[in-house]
Design brief:
The structure is a single chain. By secondary structure, the chain is an alpha/beta fold. It has six helices and 14 strands. Helix content is 21%, strand content 27%. β1 and β2 form a beta hairpin. The chain binds nickel (II) ion and manganese (II) ion.
């Protein structure tokens, strides 16, 4: 029951759960940090936190090519249908769904969500992904919020948190989020892609080590980490 995750730049991650692949917010072809092209990955599921173009990214092309099922809120899913994506699972905040090798729950995120053509994109979300052995919290684009402590009560092994500031929480607020979520490991995302969200991952990791009980994992684009 191994869990590996690979950072694809920005908020895009590949999760490998016992050899099965899930893709999170696959912004690849427009992403200056992406280590791969969209045609180099074949996920079974794509999880999409909200409708912004730096998250939807290559979802439509990848889903059409691979028949991966896209999990997102109902508004994003209905837009994806109009783009020709056939397999979707439209959920909403607080809801969970069992996909067999993992279970997903949509959490709140304080942000906004419009689709690339301006269509209303529902409420932005984060995800708690539960496997038989691990719990992963992918915060999406968000500010910190007090209810993160409830997510922490679920016993989170790995948290993926934005640290870029400007559009989401920044470095200092990520420390607050870590205190609330109490993960074993924490991985920074949504930074260094564009000038507005430049941050120093090494300095962030030092701060996490000094001020929290979590172990920071700073990946280079394409970098992979495995948890037993
Ligand atoms: Ni966004
Ligand atoms: Mn974003």
């Amino acid at each position: 029951m191994s869990l590996s995750f690979t950072w694809l730049g920005h908020s895009a991650f590949r999760l490998d759960i016992d050899g099965r692949t899930i893709l999170l917010d696959p912004f690849l072809s427009g992403n200056p940090l992406s280590p791969i092209r969209p045609d180099e990955i074949t996920p079974e599921y794509i999880l999409l936190s909200h409708g912004h173009s730096d998250h939807v990214g290559d979802t439509v092309d990848i889903a059409k090519r691979t028949q991966a099922a896209v999990i997102a809120n109902v508004e994003v899913v209905s837009w994806l249908h109009k783009q020709g994506v056939e397999k979707t699972i439209g959920m909403n905040i607080g809801g969970s769904h069992d996909l067999g090798f993992f279970k997903v729950k949509l959490t709140i995120a304080h942000h906004s969500s419009s689709l690339p053509d301006g269509t209303y994109g529902g409420n932005p979300a984060g995800f708690v992904i539960s496997t038989q052995r691990h719990k992963i919290y992918f915060a999406g684009d968000t500010a910190p919020f007090a209810e993160m402590s409830w997510i922490g009560d679920m016993g989170i092994d790995v948290a993926f948190l934005p640290i870029g500031d400007f559009y989401t929480m920044g470095v200092e607020d990520s420390i607050k989020a870590i205190e609330l979520v109490r993960p074993r490991f924490v991985v920074p995302m949504h930074y260094a892609t564009f000038p507005a969200i430049m941050q120093d991952g090494g300095a962030w990791a030092t701060m996490v080590n000094n001020r929290t009980n979590a172990t920071p994992i700073v990946l280079d684009p394409g970098g992979k980490y495995t948890i037993d």
